[in-house]
Design goal:
CATH superfamily of the largest domain: Gcn5-related N-acetyltransferase (GNAT)
GO cellular component, one term: cytoplasm
Radius of gyration: 23 Å
CATH topology of the largest domain: Aminopeptidase
Strand content: 15-25%
Distance between the termini: 40 Å
Helix content: 25-40%
Keywords: Acyltransferase, Transferase
Number of domains: 2
Number of helices: 10
Largest sheet: 7 strands, mixed
Low-confidence stretches: none
Number of strands: 13
Strand order of the largest sheet: 7-8-9-10-11-13-12
Pathway: Amino-acid biosynthesis; L-arginine biosynthesis
Order of helices and strands: HEEEEHHEHEEHHEEEHEHEHEH
Structural class: alpha+beta
InterPro entries: AceGlu_kinase-like_sf, Acyl_CoA_acyltransferase, GNAT_dom, NH2A_AcTrfase
GO molecular function, one term: L-glutamate N-acetyltransferase activity
């Protein structure tokens, strides 16, 4: 670009896009970057959703590497890194989502915009994006999630009318109008420090994308806000999943009296409890989980 006096300015396209998106209050910013990508080494797959806090940590590591000028340390393509920096800054500036796409993939833009899952990496400002209180219109989606689990005996059957009457205690994960996950909390008058989580269900297609983690930590925050200090869950499967997230196996004697009286050993459910300490502790877990 040039100033009115003819002075030449070097304005990287990524920064221009970042500033323009912030000034316009854009909902979405899309970068067509190089072939670079962020890959989860453990899962051996491209990182699809990147909370802005994690993106900032990654950018700081790259900046520290560049400051040391360690040429032996191979890193992401510079075009991708530049786009990631601007995407992170844009989200911090108020843009809701920033997408990084490989410009060498035919149809990448169309797939990202019109396909629910997209094909690139999305930097988002809210770890709990798409999680909201359930409404009556969500009942078909909730039922579709629960039905296969009920048939498999993973969760107890719940009358749909009972769920609808109790919707104030349910939340869902939604994307583009589809219910991807759901969860509910139950409180006990005789044990106000304990809240029961159940069921927690996520569509099989999204179980490896962090939706279950986000839903769990969201419900932990709700429980803390309601005055609970322990979260209880009964499960016939996924024992390791809960243990890895801070739950510990308990006994019937640890349950609220009314719940203990209704507890049946016939299903082989194990009882797990998690101590809820503070929102700050949940923040720390979010960084590790998501």
């Amino acid at each position: 670009g040039f100033s009115p006096s003819g002075e030449l300015f070097f304005c990287p396209a990524e920064q221009v896009a970042e500033r323009a998106a912030i000034a316009l209050g854009a909902e979405k910013l899309i970068f067509l970057a190089s072939a670079g990508a962020l890959v989860d080494a453990r899962r051996k797959r491209i990182v699809e959703n990147l909370p802005v806090q994690i993106a900032e940590q990654f950018v700081r590591r790259l900046d520290a590497r560049d400051a040391q000028k360690n040429a032996a340390s191979a890193g992401p393509d510079e075009s991708f890194v530049s786009a990631l920096r601007s995407a992170t800054a844009a989200v911090r500036g108020g843009v809701r989502r920033a997408h990084l796409l490989n410009r060498f993939v035919d149809g990448a833009l169309v797939m990202e915009v019109f396909h629910r899952d997209g094909v690139g990496t999305m930097v988002c400002g809210d770890v709990y994006e798409g999680i909201r209180p359930a409404r009556a219109a969500d009942m078909p989606g909730i039922a579709a999630l629960l039905e296969p689990l009920e048939k498999a005996g993973v969760v107890l059957f719940r009358e749909r009318s009972a769920i609808e009457a109790d919707l104030a205690n349910w939340v869902i994960v939604e994307r583009d109008g589809a219910v991807l996950g759901c969860a509910a909390l139950k409180r006990y008058a005789e044990a106000p420090d304990i809240v029961e989580l159940g069921p927690l269900a996520v569509s099989p297609k999204y179980r490896s994308s962090g939706k279950g983690n986000a839903l769990l930590s969201y419900m932990e925050r709700v429980a803390l806000a309601a005055g609970a200090r322990r979260m209880m869950i009964l499960s016939t499967v996924s024992f390791e999943w809960f243990l890895e997230r801070g739950f510990r196996e308990g006994t019937r004697n640890d349950m609220p009296p009314s719940r203990a009286a209704a507890y049946s050993t016939g299903r082989g459910s194990k009882i797990f409890f998690k101590q809820l300490n503070s929102p700050r502790a949940i923040d720390s877990e979010d960084v590790l989980r998501l």
